[in-house]
Amino acid sequence: MDAQTFNARVATPTTRLVGALSIVSMAWVVLGGLFITPKDVNQGDAVRIMYVHVPTAWVAYLAFIVTAVASACWLLSRKHSMGFDRVAGASAEVGVIFMAMTLLSGSLWGRITWGSYWAWDPRLTTTAFLLVTYIGYLAVRGLGGSLEQRARRSAVIALLAVLEIPLVHFSVLMWRSLHQKASVLSGDGDIKMDGSMLTTLLVGVIGFTCTFAWLVMHRQRVLAMQDAMQMTQLDVALRERANESDDRVKGLK
Amino acid sequence: MDHLGFIAAVYSVTFAVIAALVVRTVVQGRDLASKVADKDKPWT
Fold first, then answer.
1. What are the CA-CA distances from residue A75 to residues A79, A93, A135, A149, A250 (Å)?
2. Is there a contact between B39 and A4 if contact means CB atoms under 8 Å apart?
3. Does residue A250 sit within a domain?
4. What is the pLDDT of residues A166-219, one digit of tens each?
5. Which among A53, A211, A228 has CB closest to B18?
6. pTM of the full predicted structure?
């Protein structure tokens, strides 16, 4: 039997680099968002919430798209590598947390700007629906069964759930909405924003994306180790059961 | 700064949640990594 070694490290040079990038850009967002950028002409200081709200919303969308792509890869690949399933699960977990933070920051921004924490507006309602859908996705992942059963049923749900993202994104165009339309990705290329504000927003998007990447890389490793432990425990239980039945047969003889 | 309470709440909650998530992931990862054999950790 091979001698087993136990290396307690989860980080690698890549995750350390991504983590360092996250810390630097997050520090920029705090400094730029709170102290360097000017007030907005219309929103005043409430615009400072946007440097956090927009990147968290972007990361939530990205996370759910990564979940769908990884799920499709699991379904389409011949080997059905569990790595795809674990990336899908890790990404959805991070996405749910970032989506909840988006709703919270949006709610506080809404209280300042609209005078209300919540309105049954198309963008807000579809976003809340998206959050509930992915909480359901995570609940389905937690159901019993083999790793393959978990991967198959959650992949199908992920591919259906991702269809909600265009609905959320275009809800401000399809219906009358209180929520403002896209300022940077408006399509006409005309960005009416101060240079320092735009830079802080873009650094925020990069920083939160790096944080997402770091979290998914680490989290999928944690899931891989949990799966490995589950399989080891299953092997031990099966061996014990086999030994018990052997003992019974010997006892009968 | 106007609406300082709201702005501070957004920044503090967001970064506190991210920090908690990072700490939880690292602690859980180290704990499991000390129990799982290296053959099940292809990144090591």
1. 9, 20, 21, 12, 46
2. yes
3. no
4. 999 888 888 877 777 766 666 666 667 788 899 999 999 999 999 999 999 999
5. A211
6. 0.88
